[in-house]
């Protein structure tokens, strides 16, 4: 809209200037033609030759200088007496019968320099002396209200004083064209305003629609109808989608980890509690001193209390709502720290740890969980490798893929996926691999990732991690 307004203003100004310049050139040419016929002698302007007078009349008619409506005119005025001494309409001094209001007068600067080159002015006529006649004649009123372009040439005679040759032409037609142009640009500006508003409304709807869908999906998650944000959204909303999905996956995994940890704790203390309860039951069957019976009752109360605490914590793990927004963490610093650590741990074993991950390799994961995950997997690789452990990372869509390779014995041929299952104890795992795999699987699953067991290019074991960015 601003561009259209500026373009219209510039085009209007250039068009107006161009038309005025054309009009000035036309008036300059007419002034030279008229002056070619005039002769100044004894204070008079006249045409001496009859043949030239006939040619001059034709020239006046060609240029409409005898126009009675005064749209075109040419005259010579005595600036000191303010009297018109020659008129193109009569090719001589005006008759005494012609009133002063017949010719249009203008407030022209009387001190213009003497020059054959005309000066130009754009003025309105001075009001006539007979104002009543002006009010009663609409055509005459229009004549006095329009602007004229004047070509003015000044002459000076030491005897008769200073004269000005004035040629005028109405520029009402130019003003009319400019008015038509302004109206067209006003219509164009109005239409462009309407179109821009429609486009902005459509664009706003197009931009806001995905946000409304995103909001509805978040509400569905809040109500429990969905677990993750699954619809496709514009690229600008993908970081928010990934962040929320990472948070939801982390919370879900964290709840499961709390529950699993407490399950393990309950399972671990179940046997000693059962043994203690068995001993107390045997003590209750026999008679004892009051002190021992009091002690037995205290032990029974405490055992029951321990069971209640375990049950309470298990129920709490099912409804816990702790969590935080997980930010993308670079893996390179953690890998270098772990490499130094494992070189010290396995200092008696000659092997090389290669890290092929740049500073842009990041994943959405807690730093402590990342250290635990990579530490477990690299520890397995360092423990069972022969000469090489290699960690590489690359991005695949919205996931960071990390490969941990070694040149050891590899995974067992018969069902290596069982190493990822929770509840497989160390004594039931295949020889050589699987230590820390269950913990690693829990961490990866908690953030919505994936872990795979493959064959390394070094004919050893490869653990491939798919972690959200």
TrEMBL record:
One of its GO terms (molecular function) is ATP binding. Residues 264-469 form the Histidine kinase domain. This is histidine kinase. SUPFAM superfamilies: ATPase domain of HSP90 chaperone/DNA topoisomerase II/histidine kinase, Homodimeric domain of signal transducing histidine kinase. Its EC number is 2.7.13.3. Keywords: ATP-binding, Kinase, Membrane, Nucleotide-binding, Phosphoprotein, Transferase, Transmembrane, Transmembrane helix. It catalyses: ATP + protein L-histidine = ADP + protein N-phospho-L-histidine. InterPro entries: HATPase_C_sf (IPR036890), HATPase_dom (IPR003594), His_kinase_dom (IPR005467), HisK_dim/P_dom (IPR003661), HisK_dim/P_sf (IPR036097), Sig_transdc_His_kin-like_C (IPR004358), TCS_sensor_his_kinase (IPR050428). It is found in: Membrane. The lineage of its organism: Bacteria, Pseudomonadati, Pseudomonadota, Gammaproteobacteria, Thiotrichales. The chain crosses the membrane at residues 185-209.
